[in-house]
Amino acid sequence: MIPERFIYYKLGIPEIDDHHWHLFVLMTEVASLLKNKKKEEILSLLKEIELQLAEHFDIEIKIMSNMHFPFIDTHRAEHELLLSDMQDIIRDVNKGVFDGLITSLEKILVDHIIHYDLLYVSYANNLKLLGK
Question: 89 vs 9, 81, 99, 101, 131, CA distance in Å?
Protein backbone atom coordinates (compact mmCIF):
# COMPACT_ATOMS: atom_id res chain seq x y z
CA MET A 1 0.00 0.00 0.00
CA ILE A 2 1.24 3.47 -0.85
CA PRO A 3 1.68 5.76 2.18
CA GLU A 4 -0.42 8.91 2.34
CA ARG A 5 2.66 11.06 1.85
CA PHE A 6 2.79 9.85 -1.76
CA ILE A 7 -0.16 11.75 -3.11
CA TYR A 8 -1.36 10.13 -6.32
CA TYR A 9 -2.52 12.29 -9.19
CA LYS A 10 -4.40 10.67 -12.04
CA LEU A 11 -4.04 12.45 -15.34
CA GLY A 12 -6.66 10.49 -17.26
CA ILE A 13 -4.19 8.88 -19.68
CA PRO A 14 -4.22 5.21 -18.65
CA GLU A 15 -0.71 4.37 -19.84
CA ILE A 16 0.78 7.39 -18.06
CA ASP A 17 -1.30 6.83 -14.93
CA ASP A 18 -0.11 3.19 -14.82
CA HIS A 19 3.52 4.33 -15.08
CA HIS A 20 3.06 6.88 -12.31
CA TRP A 21 1.42 4.27 -10.08
CA HIS A 22 4.29 1.83 -10.65
CA LEU A 23 6.83 4.55 -9.83
CA PHE A 24 4.95 5.35 -6.60
CA VAL A 25 5.05 1.66 -5.69
CA LEU A 26 8.82 1.57 -6.26
CA MET A 27 9.25 4.73 -4.16
CA THR A 28 7.23 3.10 -1.39
CA GLU A 29 9.54 0.10 -1.48
CA VAL A 30 12.54 2.42 -1.21
CA ALA A 31 10.94 4.11 1.81
CA SER A 32 10.42 0.78 3.55
CA LEU A 33 14.04 -0.28 2.91
CA LEU A 34 15.30 3.08 4.12
CA LYS A 35 14.37 2.24 7.70
CA ASN A 36 17.20 -0.31 7.80
CA LYS A 37 19.41 1.50 5.27
CA LYS A 38 19.68 -1.56 3.06
CA LYS A 39 22.03 0.13 0.63
CA GLU A 40 22.31 -2.55 -2.07
CA GLU A 41 18.56 -3.17 -2.21
CA ILE A 42 17.87 0.58 -2.25
CA LEU A 43 20.38 1.06 -5.07
CA SER A 44 18.75 -1.71 -7.06
CA LEU A 45 15.34 -0.06 -6.69
CA LEU A 46 16.74 3.37 -7.52
CA LYS A 47 18.28 2.02 -10.71
CA GLU A 48 14.93 0.44 -11.57
CA ILE A 49 13.22 3.81 -10.97
CA GLU A 50 15.80 5.51 -13.19
CA LEU A 51 15.16 2.99 -15.97
CA GLN A 52 11.38 3.28 -15.59
CA LEU A 53 11.59 7.08 -15.61
CA ALA A 54 13.60 7.11 -18.84
CA GLU A 55 11.08 4.81 -20.53
CA HIS A 56 8.17 6.80 -19.12
CA PHE A 57 9.63 10.09 -20.30
CA ASP A 58 10.10 8.70 -23.82
CA ILE A 59 6.42 7.75 -23.93
CA GLU A 60 5.37 11.16 -22.64
CA ILE A 61 7.40 12.88 -25.36
CA LYS A 62 5.78 10.69 -28.04
CA ILE A 63 2.33 11.59 -26.72
CA MET A 64 3.20 15.30 -26.67
CA SER A 65 4.71 15.10 -30.15
CA ASN A 66 1.55 13.46 -31.52
CA MET A 67 -0.58 16.29 -30.14
CA HIS A 68 1.91 18.97 -31.27
CA PHE A 69 2.30 20.22 -27.71
CA PRO A 70 3.90 23.68 -28.03
CA PHE A 71 6.05 23.34 -24.87
CA ILE A 72 7.56 19.96 -25.69
CA ASP A 73 11.14 21.29 -25.63
CA THR A 74 10.68 22.69 -22.12
CA HIS A 75 9.15 19.42 -20.99
CA ARG A 76 11.98 17.41 -22.57
CA ALA A 77 14.55 19.63 -20.82
CA GLU A 78 12.77 19.00 -17.50
CA HIS A 79 13.02 15.26 -18.13
CA GLU A 80 16.76 15.59 -18.67
CA LEU A 81 17.12 17.52 -15.40
CA LEU A 82 15.11 14.92 -13.51
CA LEU A 83 17.19 12.05 -14.89
CA SER A 84 20.30 13.97 -13.85
CA ASP A 85 18.78 14.42 -10.37
CA MET A 86 18.12 10.68 -10.28
CA GLN A 87 21.78 9.99 -11.08
CA ASP A 88 22.78 12.34 -8.24
CA ILE A 89 20.50 10.44 -5.85
CA ILE A 90 22.06 7.13 -6.88
CA ARG A 91 25.54 8.60 -6.46
CA ASP A 92 24.66 9.84 -2.95
CA VAL A 93 23.24 6.49 -1.86
CA ASN A 94 26.36 4.79 -3.24
CA LYS A 95 28.31 7.00 -0.82
CA GLY A 96 26.00 6.01 2.04
CA VAL A 97 24.09 9.30 2.06
CA PHE A 98 20.38 8.65 2.65
CA ASP A 99 19.31 12.07 3.98
CA GLY A 100 16.53 13.62 1.91
CA LEU A 101 16.17 10.56 -0.31
CA ILE A 102 12.38 10.32 -0.17
CA THR A 103 11.96 14.09 -0.50
CA SER A 104 14.18 14.02 -3.60
CA LEU A 105 12.20 11.16 -5.13
CA GLU A 106 8.93 12.95 -4.40
CA LYS A 107 10.29 16.06 -6.12
CA ILE A 108 11.11 14.03 -9.19
CA LEU A 109 7.70 12.44 -9.49
CA VAL A 110 5.09 14.51 -7.65
CA ASP A 111 6.42 17.95 -8.57
CA HIS A 112 6.84 16.89 -12.18
CA ILE A 113 3.23 15.67 -12.39
CA ILE A 114 1.87 18.86 -10.81
CA HIS A 115 4.01 21.39 -12.67
CA TYR A 116 4.63 19.76 -16.04
CA ASP A 117 2.38 16.79 -16.80
CA LEU A 118 -0.82 18.62 -15.95
CA LEU A 119 0.09 21.20 -18.63
CA TYR A 120 0.12 18.75 -21.50
CA VAL A 121 -2.98 16.97 -20.20
CA SER A 122 -4.80 20.32 -20.04
CA TYR A 123 -3.62 21.05 -23.59
CA ALA A 124 -4.89 17.64 -24.77
CA ASN A 125 -8.24 18.20 -23.08
CA ASN A 126 -8.59 21.60 -24.75
CA LEU A 127 -7.87 20.01 -28.13
CA LYS A 128 -10.68 17.55 -27.49
CA LEU A 129 -13.03 20.39 -26.57
CA LEU A 130 -12.12 22.15 -29.79
CA GLY A 131 -12.69 18.97 -31.79
CA LYS A 132 -9.12 18.71 -33.03
Answer: 23, 12, 10, 7, 43
Amino acid at 67: M
Tell me how far the alpha carbon of residue 57 is from its chain's centroid: 8
Which helix (H) or strand (E) segment holds residue 81: the answer is helix 72-94
In-domain check, residue 4: no
Reported pTM: 0.87
Average pLDDT over residues 55-82: 95
Per-residue pLDDT tens digits for 41-56: 999 999 999 999 999 9
Which residue range forms the structural domain that includes residue 87? 14-129
Number of domains in the chain: 1
| Distance from C-alpha of 4 to C-alpha of 75, rounded to nearest angstrom | 27
Q: Quick one: three-class SS letters along 98-125?
A: CCCHHHHHHHHHHHHHHHHHHHHHHHHH
